[in-house]
Amino acid sequence: MTTEGTVEAFRRAEQLVSQRRPLEALRVLEPVISEVEDKPSVQLLLGRAYFFSAQLRRAEEAFRRILEFDPSDHYARLILGRTLQRQGRYNEARAQIRLATTMQPHDPAYQEALSEINAHIATKGA
């Protein structure tokens, strides 16, 4: 695939994820992954597509890979936390979301995510 084709496929996959059509996005991403698998932006899009298609273990792998590239990526930590939360792994989720919130303290979405998981743990336990 040419660089132009890779970029075009990536952009198309972004649109599909935004439209909540993750399975189609994953199909479009297949050739992109083989070309530029180690790019954090590709892993993020891949992880989001897996997340929205409820392939949570795969999503977790993609988000953890991003954090190998850049441990300070607050959004990857947030969405990894959400992924762990959906798997019922609340203490692990809280640790990731807490880190993300520390890195991005003025974003209400991060604060809400942390409050939500803290409330769950307080009422139902981990």
TrEMBL record:
**Keyword Mitochondrion assigned:** no
Task: Return any one Pfam family short name.
Answer: TPR_16
Q: State the source organism's domain of life.
A: Bacteria
SUPFAM superfamilies listed in its UniProt record: TPR-like
Matches recorded under SMART domains: TPR
In the UniProt record, does the keyword Nuclease occur? Answer: no
The alphabetical list of record keywords is: TPR repeat
Signal sequence: where? Answer: none
User: Repeat TPR: residue ranges?
Assistant: 40-73
Q: Which InterPro entries match?
A: TPR-like_helical_dom_sf (IPR011990), TPR_rpt (IPR019734)
Query: What name does the UniProt record give this protein?
Result: Tetratricopeptide repeat protein
Source organism per entry reads Saccharopolyspora griseoalba
